[in-house]
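Hi Y.,

Following your request, here is the sequence exactly as I used it, all 239 residues.
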Amino acid sequence: MPDFSAPWWSIDDAIIWVASADRASLPKDYFWEPPEFDDYAYFGGLRELELALLEGEIIAHASIDAAPVGPVHESFWSSMNFVPFWSRSQWPVVLIHSQDAFRADALLDHSEPSNTKVPDAKYPEGAFGFYRVARDVTFRRDEILERWTIQTIREPLSKTAPKTRAKRKLTLKVEASLAKMTHNGLSLARDKRGLSDADIAELLLERWHDEGDTEVREFEAVKKQVWRYYDRLRTLANA
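Below is the corresponding structure, written out as C-alpha coordinates. Let me know if you'd prefer a different format.
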Protein backbone atom coordinates (compact mmCIF):
# COMPACT_ATOMS: atom_id res chain seq x y z
CA MET A 1 0.00 0.00 0.00
CA PRO A 2 1.22 3.59 -0.49
CA ASP A 3 3.37 4.81 2.39
CA PHE A 4 2.57 8.48 2.91
CA SER A 5 5.84 9.03 4.73
CA ALA A 6 7.80 8.12 1.59
CA PRO A 7 8.57 10.91 -0.90
CA TRP A 8 8.47 8.45 -3.83
CA TRP A 9 5.77 5.96 -4.79
CA SER A 10 6.07 2.94 -7.04
CA ILE A 11 3.77 2.76 -10.05
CA ASP A 12 1.80 -0.04 -8.36
CA ASP A 13 1.17 2.09 -5.27
CA ALA A 14 0.19 5.02 -7.48
CA ILE A 15 -2.35 2.92 -9.40
CA ILE A 16 -3.95 1.73 -6.15
CA TRP A 17 -4.30 5.34 -5.04
CA VAL A 18 -5.75 6.53 -8.35
CA ALA A 19 -8.13 3.57 -8.52
CA SER A 20 -9.49 3.99 -5.00
CA ALA A 21 -12.65 5.97 -4.43
CA ASP A 22 -12.22 6.62 -0.68
CA ARG A 23 -9.21 8.91 -0.79
CA ALA A 24 -10.89 11.50 1.45
CA SER A 25 -10.73 9.08 4.39
CA LEU A 26 -6.98 9.62 4.83
CA PRO A 27 -6.33 9.65 8.60
CA LYS A 28 -4.13 12.21 10.30
CA ASP A 29 -1.41 9.65 10.96
CA TYR A 30 -0.99 9.16 7.18
CA PHE A 31 -1.81 5.47 7.29
CA TRP A 32 -4.08 4.50 4.46
CA GLU A 33 -5.57 1.06 3.91
CA PRO A 34 -6.58 0.44 0.28
CA PRO A 35 -10.02 -1.08 -0.33
CA GLU A 36 -10.73 -4.57 -1.57
CA PHE A 37 -9.57 -5.19 -5.11
CA ASP A 38 -12.05 -4.14 -7.80
CA ASP A 39 -11.10 -5.02 -11.37
CA TYR A 40 -13.11 -2.20 -12.97
CA ALA A 41 -11.65 0.40 -10.62
CA TYR A 42 -8.15 -1.00 -11.05
CA PHE A 43 -8.10 -0.93 -14.85
CA GLY A 44 -9.73 2.48 -14.79
CA GLY A 45 -6.97 3.73 -12.47
CA LEU A 46 -4.28 2.17 -14.63
CA ARG A 47 -5.76 3.88 -17.69
CA GLU A 48 -5.92 7.25 -15.91
CA LEU A 49 -2.27 7.00 -14.87
CA GLU A 50 -1.18 5.89 -18.34
CA LEU A 51 -3.01 8.80 -19.98
CA ALA A 52 -1.47 11.24 -17.51
CA LEU A 53 1.98 9.94 -18.47
CA LEU A 54 1.25 10.17 -22.19
CA GLU A 55 -0.03 13.72 -21.84
CA GLY A 56 2.90 14.84 -19.69
CA GLU A 57 0.71 15.66 -16.69
CA ILE A 58 3.03 13.70 -14.40
CA ILE A 59 6.68 12.70 -14.70
CA ALA A 60 7.89 9.19 -13.99
CA HIS A 61 11.42 8.11 -13.13
CA ALA A 62 12.48 4.66 -14.30
CA SER A 63 15.29 2.37 -15.33
CA ILE A 64 15.07 1.70 -19.07
CA ASP A 65 16.87 -1.41 -20.29
CA ALA A 66 18.96 -1.72 -17.10
CA ALA A 67 20.12 1.91 -17.25
CA PRO A 68 20.30 4.04 -14.08
CA VAL A 69 16.97 5.41 -12.87
CA GLY A 70 16.16 8.84 -14.25
CA PRO A 71 13.27 11.00 -15.50
CA VAL A 72 11.49 9.67 -18.60
CA HIS A 73 10.09 11.91 -21.33
CA GLU A 74 6.36 11.61 -22.00
CA SER A 75 6.91 10.53 -25.64
CA PHE A 76 8.60 7.33 -24.47
CA TRP A 77 5.42 5.88 -22.96
CA SER A 78 3.57 5.83 -26.30
CA SER A 79 5.82 2.95 -27.37
CA MET A 80 5.19 0.84 -24.28
CA ASN A 81 2.59 -1.67 -23.11
CA PHE A 82 1.36 -1.68 -19.52
CA VAL A 83 0.63 -5.31 -18.63
CA PRO A 84 -0.90 -6.12 -15.22
CA PHE A 85 -0.26 -9.51 -13.66
CA TRP A 86 -0.87 -11.09 -10.28
CA SER A 87 1.90 -12.40 -8.07
CA ARG A 88 1.15 -12.99 -4.40
CA SER A 89 -0.62 -9.74 -3.59
CA GLN A 90 -4.31 -8.91 -3.74
CA TRP A 91 -3.65 -6.09 -6.21
CA PRO A 92 -1.81 -6.74 -9.49
CA VAL A 93 1.60 -5.39 -10.37
CA VAL A 94 2.43 -3.89 -13.75
CA LEU A 95 5.05 -5.04 -16.22
CA ILE A 96 5.97 -2.28 -18.68
CA HIS A 97 7.62 -3.39 -21.90
CA SER A 98 7.99 -2.14 -25.45
CA GLN A 99 5.38 -2.89 -28.09
CA ASP A 100 8.07 -4.01 -30.51
CA ALA A 101 10.81 -6.59 -30.05
CA PHE A 102 14.53 -5.93 -30.52
CA ARG A 103 17.59 -8.01 -31.33
CA ALA A 104 19.33 -9.46 -28.31
CA ASP A 105 22.52 -7.51 -29.02
CA ALA A 106 20.54 -4.24 -29.00
CA LEU A 107 19.47 -4.63 -25.36
CA LEU A 108 21.14 -5.21 -22.01
CA ASP A 109 18.06 -6.60 -20.28
CA HIS A 110 16.98 -9.96 -21.73
CA SER A 111 14.39 -10.78 -19.08
CA GLU A 112 11.35 -10.47 -21.38
CA PRO A 113 11.69 -12.60 -24.54
CA SER A 114 9.31 -12.08 -27.45
CA ASN A 115 7.53 -14.80 -29.39
CA THR A 116 8.07 -12.90 -32.64
CA LYS A 117 11.19 -12.97 -34.78
CA VAL A 118 13.24 -9.93 -35.75
CA PRO A 119 15.79 -9.56 -38.56
CA ASP A 120 19.20 -10.94 -37.61
CA ALA A 121 22.33 -11.09 -39.76
CA LYS A 122 23.32 -14.43 -38.24
CA TYR A 123 20.00 -16.12 -39.01
CA PRO A 124 18.38 -15.67 -42.46
CA GLU A 125 14.98 -16.63 -41.09
CA GLY A 126 15.34 -14.16 -38.21
CA ALA A 127 15.74 -14.73 -34.49
CA PHE A 128 13.39 -14.33 -31.56
CA GLY A 129 13.80 -10.89 -30.04
CA PHE A 130 13.38 -9.31 -26.64
CA TYR A 131 11.24 -6.50 -25.31
CA ARG A 132 12.72 -3.33 -23.86
CA VAL A 133 11.64 -3.16 -20.23
CA ALA A 134 11.01 -0.22 -17.90
CA ARG A 135 11.68 -1.09 -14.26
CA ASP A 136 11.65 0.70 -10.92
CA VAL A 137 9.03 3.14 -12.19
CA THR A 138 8.41 5.73 -9.48
CA PHE A 139 6.59 9.03 -9.00
CA ARG A 140 6.95 11.88 -6.58
CA ARG A 141 4.30 11.45 -3.93
CA ASP A 142 3.39 15.15 -3.95
CA GLU A 143 2.87 15.10 -7.72
CA ILE A 144 0.44 12.17 -7.48
CA LEU A 145 -1.46 13.76 -4.60
CA GLU A 146 -1.66 17.05 -6.48
CA ARG A 147 -2.99 15.40 -9.65
CA TRP A 148 -5.40 13.06 -7.81
CA THR A 149 -6.23 15.08 -4.74
CA ILE A 150 -7.59 13.69 -1.51
CA GLN A 151 -10.76 15.70 -2.09
CA THR A 152 -11.26 14.23 -5.57
CA ILE A 153 -13.81 11.50 -5.05
CA ARG A 154 -15.33 9.53 -7.89
CA GLU A 155 -19.08 9.19 -7.92
CA PRO A 156 -19.65 5.69 -6.53
CA LEU A 157 -20.66 3.34 -9.31
CA SER A 158 -23.79 2.29 -7.43
CA LYS A 159 -25.05 5.91 -7.32
CA THR A 160 -24.78 6.69 -11.01
CA ALA A 161 -27.66 6.36 -13.45
CA PRO A 162 -28.17 2.80 -14.75
CA LYS A 163 -27.31 3.67 -18.37
CA THR A 164 -24.20 5.62 -17.32
CA ARG A 165 -23.17 2.83 -14.96
CA ALA A 166 -23.56 0.18 -17.67
CA LYS A 167 -21.62 2.27 -20.18
CA ARG A 168 -18.78 2.85 -17.73
CA LYS A 169 -18.62 -0.84 -16.86
CA LEU A 170 -18.44 -1.78 -20.53
CA THR A 171 -15.74 0.84 -21.20
CA LEU A 172 -13.57 -0.53 -18.38
CA LYS A 173 -14.33 -4.13 -19.41
CA VAL A 174 -13.10 -3.44 -22.95
CA GLU A 175 -9.98 -1.63 -21.72
CA ALA A 176 -9.16 -4.36 -19.20
CA SER A 177 -9.47 -7.09 -21.83
CA LEU A 178 -7.56 -5.29 -24.59
CA ALA A 179 -4.70 -4.67 -22.18
CA LYS A 180 -4.18 -8.43 -22.05
CA MET A 181 -5.33 -9.63 -25.48
CA THR A 182 -3.14 -10.65 -28.39
CA HIS A 183 -3.78 -11.55 -32.03
CA ASN A 184 -1.33 -13.86 -33.78
CA GLY A 185 1.05 -13.31 -30.88
CA LEU A 186 0.90 -9.49 -31.10
CA SER A 187 -0.60 -7.27 -28.40
CA LEU A 188 -3.86 -5.46 -29.13
CA ALA A 189 -3.30 -2.97 -26.31
CA ARG A 190 -2.22 -0.17 -28.67
CA ASP A 191 -2.67 -1.51 -32.20
CA LYS A 192 -5.54 -3.28 -33.98
CA ARG A 193 -3.06 -5.39 -35.94
CA GLY A 194 -5.07 -5.03 -39.15
CA LEU A 195 -8.36 -6.04 -37.54
CA SER A 196 -11.56 -4.02 -37.85
CA ASP A 197 -13.54 -2.74 -34.87
CA ALA A 198 -16.12 -5.43 -35.60
CA ASP A 199 -13.44 -8.15 -35.64
CA ILE A 200 -12.14 -7.05 -32.25
CA ALA A 201 -15.65 -6.78 -30.83
CA GLU A 202 -16.28 -10.39 -31.86
CA LEU A 203 -13.01 -11.48 -30.25
CA LEU A 204 -13.97 -9.71 -27.04
CA LEU A 205 -17.40 -11.32 -26.89
CA GLU A 206 -15.85 -14.73 -27.53
CA ARG A 207 -13.23 -14.13 -24.85
CA TRP A 208 -15.80 -13.10 -22.26
CA HIS A 209 -17.94 -16.13 -23.09
CA ASP A 210 -14.95 -18.44 -22.70
CA GLU A 211 -14.19 -16.81 -19.35
CA GLY A 212 -17.67 -17.72 -18.14
CA ASP A 213 -19.05 -14.19 -18.28
CA THR A 214 -22.78 -14.65 -18.86
CA GLU A 215 -23.74 -10.96 -19.01
CA VAL A 216 -25.55 -10.08 -22.24
CA ARG A 217 -23.95 -7.24 -24.19
CA GLU A 218 -25.05 -5.76 -27.50
CA PHE A 219 -22.53 -6.25 -30.29
CA GLU A 220 -22.88 -2.66 -31.53
CA ALA A 221 -22.24 -1.29 -28.04
CA VAL A 222 -19.04 -3.32 -27.75
CA LYS A 223 -17.98 -2.30 -31.25
CA LYS A 224 -18.54 1.37 -30.36
CA GLN A 225 -16.39 1.06 -27.24
CA VAL A 226 -13.64 -0.58 -29.31
CA TRP A 227 -13.70 2.36 -31.73
CA ARG A 228 -13.53 4.84 -28.83
CA TYR A 229 -10.61 2.97 -27.25
CA TYR A 230 -8.43 3.16 -30.36
CA ASP A 231 -9.65 6.66 -31.22
CA ARG A 232 -8.30 7.88 -27.87
CA LEU A 233 -4.95 6.28 -28.67
CA ARG A 234 -4.88 8.00 -32.09
CA THR A 235 -5.69 11.34 -30.48
CA LEU A 236 -2.86 10.97 -27.99
CA ALA A 237 -0.42 9.88 -30.65
CA ASN A 238 -1.20 12.96 -32.76
CA ALA A 239 -1.14 15.39 -29.84
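The first strand starts at residue 8 and ends at 10.

Thanks again,
Q.
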